[in-house]
Amino acid sequence: MLDKEKIRKYAKQIGADLCGFASMDRFASAPKEQDPRYIFPDAKTCIVLAFRIPRGYFRGIEEGTYFANYTAMGYAGINEVYGPIVLRELCCYIEDEGWEAVPVPNISFRNNAPAGVDLRKTSPKPKTLSVADDRPAPDILIDMRAAAFAAGLGEFGWSKVFLTPEFGPMQRFVALLTDFECEPDPIFEGKICDRCMSCARMCTGHAISTTESDHLCIAGHDIEYAKVDLNACGNAYRGGIPEYNPFDVNAEGLGSNWATSQAGFGLELYMRHNHALEGARGCMRECFIHLEKKGVLTHKFQNQFRKRKPWVIDRSGREDEATAAKPSDDKTLY
Length: 334
Fold this sequence. Notes:
The chain is 30% helix and 15% strand. It is an alpha+beta fold.
């Protein structure tokens, strides 16, 4: 007979690092566009799986010498490959016991409108429409951080990145909805984030406020976190700050002129790395370093992560080097 602990044990056996359970009523305050109950109205339980981001995925970016790992394996590899594979296995496990299981991977299709926006009144025409007046337009995008909180896995950090007592900020989440009903896990009542503001100080895009905050209500709990400038965040993490982007040899940022002027090897490298080139320097790396030094994380390492002074590119007097590194008209890679 299926029970919660059997599911948790199997989820970890097939590759999840953490597994939490939330009852569907904990999503009562979610906006329609993020409410998983509209995906599966008969669901009784939301199961949230966490996949840690191994510390070594950040090593190359920390040293400034190898940028592919975090984007390929720590981002897309978990969200689009590993997470969905584990989700499928868990879905089959639950459905073999006669209960329906709906996988919700951490993949954003961005087809629906922001919360509170009526798609029928927007201009230009929306990409999707609701199939009925009582339902939100597809695709519903669950806030995985909210789901992780509802499943008792941890808390929101000041940067809005989710923290667990095991891995701090270093994990990603997926969810599964099922009509199998079980007792939800208790909401996490511990304290991981101490508002040290290291995340804000080390954010290369200065996107995290130290004074202004936003709030979210989940399962009757008021969640406070920093007001985040998403445009500044997006620009920085894609490599828009030249001092933290060694592939932007001419310090032109992410403007269209620079992106379209690159050819051959230069553009190929840029396009391969641009999705997470900055390596979450403040919100994840610096946060992890702080929590590791405090000794509050349950997953321990033999050596601390930060071994050298954080790098920043000094571009003074390097004009000749940048000119020499500029790709030629020859588009042959080798």
